[in-house]
């Protein structure tokens, strides 16, 4: 752990990790995700909720309600670390104040695909900064994808956005609005540290489970 992060009182943690799923998710998916996090020595908090109408409802709730930690880290249910260094890399990026860190994404169906933001499937941010921003609405709109508004409000406030970029893609599928990193897709790894299968919330989970098994089998 980076010594620049000071130890907190017992009731205040340095970070907490959350992931949300509902009845549509293969019940094996959260079990495999939890097992991968355990392998890397970190715990993840699962939120099972069938009442949220969309992912943005969960994000709004968790951002406002979790205040007993310095940093909030969000993973989609089919997103996992693939390297034991992932947490140190993330915390190092968070050292800079007023920063959001996470996977780069473009909503291809909005603004002629000319948009770039930190995706809600993996991001980390200071809880104090979320409060200072007055908890930007994370729900999708006619103009923005779910979670996109958080990045846009940070940019408007002069904050810092640290994108993690695709470093390996199993199946290229979508355009990424960036001059060098131009594509992402099913089974994308970001910064050689985070893997996202996509679509497992819709019970298309074979790709994710296979990836988890390969990680768990490695010594």
Quick tags:
219 residues; alpha/beta; Spore Coat Polysaccharide Biosynthesis Protein SpsA, Chain A; six-stranded mixed sheet; four-stranded antiparallel sheet; 26% helix; globular; disordered N terminus
Structure summary:
This protein has helices at residues 28-39, 55-65, 86-93, 127-132, 148-156, 206-217, and strands at residues 13-21, 45-48, 69-75, 79-81, 99-105, 117-126, 160-164, 166-175, 183-190, 194-196.
Structural description of this entry:
With 219 residues, the protein is α/β, with parallel strands linked by helices. The chain has a single domain, classed as Spore Coat Polysaccharide Biosynthesis Protein SpsA, Chain A. It has 6 helices and 10 strands, in the order E-H-E-H-E-E-H-E-E-H-H-E-E-E-E-H. It has helices at 28-39, 55-65, 86-93, 127-132, 148-156, 206-217, and strands at 13-21, 45-48, 69-75, 79-81, 99-105, 117-126, 160-164, 166-175, 183-190, 194-196. It has a 6-stranded mixed β-sheet with strand order 2-1-3-6-5-7. It starts with 12 loop residues before the first strand and ends with a helix.
The helix tally amounts to: 6
Mean pLDDT: 94
| CATH fold category name | Spore Coat Polysaccharide Biosynthesis Protein SpsA, Chain A
Rg, alpha carbons: 16 Å
* Helix and strand sequence: EHEHEEHEEHHEEEEH
The CATH homologous superfamily: Spore Coat Polysaccharide Biosynthesis Protein SpsA, Chain A
> How far apart are the termini?
22 Å
Strand pairing plus helix content: what structural class? alpha/beta
Q: Characterize the biggest β-sheet.
A: 6 strands, mixed
Determine the strand fraction and express it as a percent band. 25-35%
User: Order of strands side by side in the largest beta sheet?
Assistant: 2-1-3-6-5-7
Tally of distinct domains: 1
Compute the number of strand runs: 10
CATH-defined architecture: Alpha-Beta Complex
């Amino acid at each position: 752990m980076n010594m620049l992060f000071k130890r907190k009182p017992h009731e205040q943690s340095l970070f907490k990790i959350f992931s949300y799923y509902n009845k549509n998710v293969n019940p094996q998916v959260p079990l495999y995700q939890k097992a991968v996090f355990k392998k890397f020595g970190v715990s993840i908090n699962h939120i099972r909720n069938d009442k949220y109408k969309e992912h943005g409802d969960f994000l709004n709730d968790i951002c406002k309600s979790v205040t007993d930690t310095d940093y909030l880290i969000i993973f989609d249910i089919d997103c996992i670390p693939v390297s034991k260094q992932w947490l140190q890399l993330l915390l190092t990026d968070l050292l800079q104040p007023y920063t959001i860190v996470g996977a780069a994404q473009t909503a291809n169906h909005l603004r002629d695909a000319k948009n770039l933001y930190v995706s809600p499937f993996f991001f980390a941010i200071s809880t104090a900064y979320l409060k200072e921003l007055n908890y930007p609405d994370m729900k999708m709109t006619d103009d923005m994808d779910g979670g996109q508004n958080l990045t846009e409000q940070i940019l408007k406030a002069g904050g810092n956005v640290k994108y993690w970029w695709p470093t390996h893609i199993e199946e290229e599928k979508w355009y990424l609005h960036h001059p060098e990193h131009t594509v992402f897709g099913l089974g994308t790894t970001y910064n050689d540290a985070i893997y996202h299968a996509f679509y497992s919330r819709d019970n298309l989970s074979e790709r994710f489970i296979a990836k988890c098994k390969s990680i768990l089998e490695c010594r």
